[in-house]
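hi support,

uploading two proteins for the ticket. first:
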Amino acid sequence: DGSFINTKHTYQAGYADAPFGPDWECWTPYWNREDWGVRPAMEEARGATIWLRSPEEAGPALSLILHGRGDVAARVSAIASLLVSPTSIEVLVVDPEWALTHGLASHATDARLRLLDDADVPDGVTAGAALRIAGACARGRHIAYLPGPVLVDGLDALVARLGDTAIEAVVHTVGDAGPATRPLTIVSRRALDRLDGVDALAADPIGAFAARARQLFGATPVTGVTIHAISSSDAGVAETGVDAAWNALGHGGVVPAVVAADLTRRGELLTAHLRARLARELPEDARDVAVFGVSAITPFAMAAVRALGRRVVGVFAPGGDSSVAVAGMPVQSPSDLDAGESLWVVAACASPGDVTVLYERVPIARAIHVVEPASLRPSSPPFATAPWFEGLAYARERREAGALREAEVAYRALLRDPRFADAVRARYELALVQEQLGNVREAEAGLRWALRHWPEERGTMAYNLGSFYERQGRSALAERAFHRALALTAAHDAGRRAGCHFHLGEIAIATGEDAAAREHFTRALEALPGHGKARARLDALVTA
């Protein structure tokens, strides 16, 4: 959406052509989200250009990740001992509390120490979620999650042993399990990618991740290196019984009570999430609900519908013939689905083909997706022009009727079809819907995208982007956008030029620049003598 870690001076005189656009505040960092998968990329300056290098090409040999909540003194001691070695490492401290940040002030000049604070880790996330983000931000060819404040004797030998093996999916272990700590598991970046990082909801995210790594890849023990736990006031090593019991499930063992409790907790979280979603989107008079599609989400979707006091009339899926049941209900054929006036459908299918079958039976306005399909592109006919969708007209009808959520879904569906010819206009209108819904960041991204990809309407898009920034109270960006709109507006377009000057005058009044405001209102009246608001503002300024 136009956000990059970069500075516009990289593009020198042609910075207006930079991918983030000329309206970007040049010294403000815009961080790529964790799920984009490009956080670890490193910048390498080559003359007037910047090259992005992967960790396997240019990263340190080892990233050591430590969660920053707990005994501050023990963590400061552990981090200081790691930074003593001049080896090719980096130490990431994720979600550090203020006292720990203050305690590490003496190491602030060491580029190998990185603190992932509020800019990267949202408030209130679990330890597993924070560690998952840290894994995506790490720049090392190998990654190790520290189970707590520890000392690593022989760190130089460990880094030398790792060498350049990061191009393969490999796992190393250091130390033996003991009462005070666990063996340190080191994974290459390829192995991390295949394992998809830590489990954000695990009771013991580090232990669970290490067990999965060793189970999938095996492990090569590293000798001559010792791990010592530093005595601290932390709560202690997390319970690993859940992880061990999970591994036992694959062998057909009895489900222990602790695993059953964990399964219950996860099911309750998922059901509560679905219930909240359906409570927002199901109308009050929708008493009968059908569930379409068989997936891992289907029984939870059924539970969420029932939790809202609605009736599940059945489960339907392509190929269903009542020979298979989900949560006690037989799976029926889509031909048995009677989409009456009052029936709503909760779609739990992740197959694009299933979605196509669904829309042959049910209007899109009465289907709620709780699983995002991989694609909404049936082979034929094109989705955006299919008779049950009605193309852009349907999305606009929903928007004009005030059904903003339905309009958002319809616009997104249009944009999924690569053969849809009017995607730029749909993306712009989706941005307007998102602003009405209060999704300011998404709306801004859409308007900026339209500004870049709609050359024949670039002046209009710049004007609309300026109005957006003005409504948000972001005066500097609004002023820049209106100036750009002026530059892109033809001399004969008096209305647009007057509007730009009027808005620039309003911004000047807000910032206390009365002389600039008088000039802009005067030029607005020169372009459009009948501009009543500009006349009133100018008269008030002259009188004052």
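and the second one:
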Amino acid sequence: MSHKRNVYLQMKSLDAARSVVMDAFAAGLAPGSETLSAPLAVGRILAGPVTARLSSPNFHAAAMDGIAVRAKSTFGAHEARPIVLHLGQDAFPVNTGHVMPEGTDAVIMIEQVQDLGGQAVQIEAPAFPWQHVRKMGEDIVATELLFARHHQVTPYCVGALLSAGRFAVEVLRRPKMVVIPTGSELVDWPSVGAGDIRPGQVIESNAYMLAAMVDAAGGQCERREQVGDDPEAIAQAIETAISRTDVMAVLVTGGSSAGSEDYARSAIATLGEVLVHGVTMMPGKPVIVGRASAKPVFGIPGYPVSAIMAFEQLVHPLIAAWLGQPAPTRTQVEVIPTRKIASKLGVEEFVRVKIGRVGRRLVAAALPRGAGQITSITEADGIIRIPASLEGINPDSPVAAELLRPAHAVEHTVVVVGSHDNTLDVLADELKSWDPRLSLSSSHVGSMGGLMAIKRGGCHVAGSHLLDEKDGTYNISYIHQHLKGLDVRLLHLVMRDQGLIVLPGNPKNIKDIGDLVRDDVCMINRQAGSGTRILLDYRLKQLGLASARIDGYHSEEYTHMAVAAAVLSGAADVGLGIWAAAKALGLDFIPVVTEQYDLIIPAEYFNSGPIESLKQSIRSDAFKKRVMALGGYHTERTGEVLM
């Protein structure tokens, strides 16, 4: 079979693609029903209306401990004119929940009854009809509607169903789906030992993730064994799945884009028809919607974030429709982006962001936008949707964000913006031990980016290691220059060893910064404005070396771990970074300098509850011990207030 590339000739908007899915499949397929006992029906959707078989309560019941009386016999009772009643004649002792004696219609609480001895009691206030009595059917009346069709059964509903004599209910079956992972590069996680994965191999995760998402959406998913890049085998796997009467849809992961070995489209076309190939959204553009044997077949993109977006925007709404539920929605809040977020015209973009309350505003910092970066979803607090008609969003302009976490979570977030350091991950975990409500959100935009975030009121804390070339001090001169007029505190976090990260054994025999200009050496750099970039430029200036002579000077990463990963992968021979990053990935390290890494905190937040917890975490022995274990750190002055 010839290897042809797919071409997106007629991409549809997201709204148009969703309409295609709904028009083609929402009404034409039904999941059927099954009967479950009421306690086992929690979370399920009722197939039809449910009415009560019994009233609740099914008798007049005392609602208090005391005496049951006929209210009329108590009229006229007063402190000055008490009435005497006789037990067993016109007053009857009852406890809460007891059947009301015949002829009685009120209960007088025991606290309001005076025992005169023998069988006589005295009351000093009248009772009114049905006082402290639960009437028959007060809660539920036999034959009345308890729940309409398509109601989702909650734990509360179980109590009502059992009380009403509905011990079993008919619910919709969970829509059954099959997910088929494709790709010759995939390996299943049970077969992967510790670190036993070769270059070119990818651990199959999308199918497991999608199966869990189907289950969470109210469906039921079966994961099939992965299929290699063989169009006939893929088509056969789809046909086998779609032919089962209990299967309502098939998800094929991978093979949906424009590569020469992306066979999902041709396989679907062989079995039926392709309704949509390509949607104007990012991530998720290559998604396919097809039909075979009147059932939907979705080609889900291979990048994990694309897979998530394709499922949430097209598959989840279809499951909801089959179950008679409204399309899923998320809580929206107004946020202020801390930096400009650029976007491409003609494509609706889903930007993952971290969110936290700083002052009176919720601020949002964009996370990496690559469709292959699953952590951009796992770390995100929300999503900003940029319409296809816009080229981006300006900083400090209010915009809506869909929350991925409960609203209270973003209200208890310490927002850290600035230079990356591995100790921030340790700090995020230690902070939880001091106050479980708090979380730490760290965005890596470089030290200068952190200072600008403080200036704009976009964070609580900025991480910085800016070297003053004139006197060798860190951060203070930059604070005076760029944060003039702002009252801030400088809290020392760590001293750390910066140096050159190279492959084990240092195959290029790199010795110092001067070797970066060699013709056989390629480096990976940090972004402009980062303290590490400023340090490099300072050392190059000292040595009289032009950055233009360095191969890779303009190739940038935003974290020390990303620099180390670039060296490990062979994308670069060397990068300037911290020892902890080199140690974490088993790389060699050539020390260059021990530098100071501090936290800049506006005075208005410095004594607040969350920052107090942060300071306690930083000064704790547990934090210092974990930091030292990373390698290349010094904590003798950790937690000191420097200004």
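thanks. also noticed: The CA atoms of residues 86 and 120 lie 5 Å apart.
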